[in-house]
């Protein structure tokens, strides 16, 4: 399988499901697909639809429905992606595009916002994750084909659009937006006194490069500690998340374990780069929207005693979806492995429990709390004393 095929979807297309080992399935007597007889049921149903359904329907729509039906039997996160959706994914991983700065998934009411890119038109207008776009320019979204939906949100149509929003299932309102060039800046760094605050919004093709630049800035400013802000980070390209975790760990530490019936997918990933941050004290910020690759980074640094985790329990996404292209016809997103942390805990439905749990109402002051905590660690001395302080504050 090519590297492109093994690329993990951004939050638009990455989700996680519960883990069942293949061995357990065999013990329950579940046969493999090859062992089961193939019948003509699907063919017969299509024939009945063609002959007797009250309205006309296209072959393409039936094919998509049949494919999604098969994938839905596996788990809720294995889906078919048509060509337009696949092209939209490829565009977002490259880092620059014309649009409003959101990632979406389909819902019964329309298009649900998965994440909002900071400093984008959608962000400035106050759009939030979990908002549902019900209409675009007064046209109902759930009646749109995927091609039209992505076209209206990108550069293919008018630069100004009006979105009708459903929030919290009860509140409705309209927002007017003007599209702009979205620079997918995944990493932002600021310095507060002697502390570097590094925020990763998501993981795309440029994240590792951006993190290397951020660490150079940390060294240049002679920062004494690092706050890694992973709040509202929905994940992204998993290989990039693994490399980011690797930057902060000594060699030969377990970053993540993949478990799958496919021996090629089953593996334990160890750190190898060595600690590029030179052992600076670290605090990681997480919340209920920290998911996927962001949870991987938090668990790897937390369980290896490299950082204190501060905030709310994370989302809990624990399986890997591989995007397998079908030339000219899109791709399928298929669950191919499950994720386990360095301690052997599964991520799915569990998430990461912070070392220091912070109430939701205190989230706005979280960075200041992290700064105060780091300053407290500095007071204990350098080197071994600081490391001992970090270890005493972690639950792992």
Describe this structure in words.
The chain is 29% helix and 26% strand. With 396 residues, it is α+β, with helices and mostly antiparallel strands. It folds into two domains: 96-183, Pdz3 Domain (Roll), CATH 2.30.42; 187-392, 2-enoyl-CoA Hydratase, Chain A, domain 1 (Alpha-Beta Complex), CATH 3.90.226.10. The strands form four sheets. Strands 3, 4, 5, 6, 7 and 8 form a six-stranded antiparallel sheet that branches. β17 and β18 (330-340) form a beta hairpin. The two termini are 36 Å apart.
Question: Short description, anyone?
Answer:
The protein is an alpha+beta fold and 396 residues long. The protein contains eleven helices and 19 strands.
List strands and helices in order, with pairings.
Blueprint (H helix, E strand, L loop, with lengths): L21 H6 L13 H12 L6 H16 L4 E3 L1 H12 L1 E4 L2 E5 L4 E6 L4 H4 L7 E5 L2 E2 L5 H8 L6 E8 L3 E8 L1 E4 L3 E6 L2 E6 L6 H14 L4 E5 L8 H10 L6 E6 L7 E4 L11 E5 L6 H11 L4 E4 L7 E8 L3 E11 L15 E2 L8 H13 L5 H9 L4
Parallel strand pairs: 11-12, 12-15, 15-16, 16-19
Antiparallel strand pairs: 1-18, 2-9, 3-4, 4-5, 5-6, 5-7, 7-8, 10-11, 13-14, 13-18, 17-18
Helix pairs in contact: 8-9
